[in-house]
Queue: 2 jobs
Job 1
Amino acid sequence: MRRILATLPMALILAFVVPSGIAEATSFEPDVGISFPAGTISAFDFDLAAGTIQARRPFATISRGDGLPDGLTVDAEGGIWLAIWGGWRVRRYLPEAEVVPLVLRGGLAPTEIERLAAALAPLVDEGTVVVAAVDFSHGLPAADAGRRDGETLAALRARDWTRVVGWGNEHLDSPAAVALLMETMGRLGAGRFELTDNSNSGEVSGDFASPVTSYIVGYFH
């Protein structure tokens, strides 16, 4: 940070207030992202030859209740990793990524799942990630939740989404989302499920006396 700031005019340095992180991104515009204690990340165009920056504009904002932006860095894919001081986490921003949310109603019939998958699959290319973000077994003791998770994992590995779509909260809170993901991946020739992790809130907190919520993380290939 000192090396970069030493090349900048004093007026620009004073305008930064107290930057808590500086990173250069080479795979997208803008070139430089700077986080500020005020809760915002600003982007600038950085002229390396002249040693100047210009065109300041907001890139992202961290709400006060979530903490404050701290150090940041840029990875090889152009993703910006930001430490949240007081928020106990790290966020990753992908400036060129477009998020398209799909909201599904409950009680979708298998024929509706098939029609949705048939429409979705042609839109998925090598640069697309399809994500189903759901809670799995919840409201049950840890031992019972573990058994339900076992049934869910068996269905995922068997590509049996018609079984999943008929389940309720004892297995997962959005059967239609997982069923649509499974059918879409099957149409794309990526029907094999690989488990990354399976846990529940009891294992995380150590409280096995209360009902738990399960988490299953994996991917299709």
Note: The CA atoms of residues 38 and 67 lie 10 Å apart.
Job 2
Amino acid sequence: MRNFGADNWPCWEEYKVAIVSRFGTGPFDDPLAELMKLKQTRSVALYQEKFHMLLNRVDMSISQAVSCFLSGLSEKIQCVVRMFRPARLHEAYCLAKLQEATLAFISRRSKPILERTPTLTRTFSSYRGSVGGSSGLTYPRQPRRSTTTR
């Protein structure tokens, strides 16, 4: 129904199609089974919209709805949201969206650790027993091998 503007009311046939697509109909229609199978595959907002459409067709308690919503979230998001133990759907929605934004931020900012590996221009053997560059460090000499035999 969001596609219809305030001044552009649909005709009866368009209205029926919109209602059936939103709430469904038919002998094999099982919204509870669909709700239990629903998984987040893209954004939390899209998952929330699909979840809410199915939830409107089912009679369940708030705690059951929260549990069902959390079970369909991706694992990376689900674990963090469960940690806060949301009691209402609105809390679960907000926490899931916040975690999704956090993960997106981290993935944009993080760079591989090995991306900037230092390159050595000299070998350590050239510094034996002397001061090492501008750092003022000395490197220990390797012990000499004795030439005497036992």
Note: Helices lie at 12-23, 31-37, 44-55, 62-72, 75-83, 89-109.
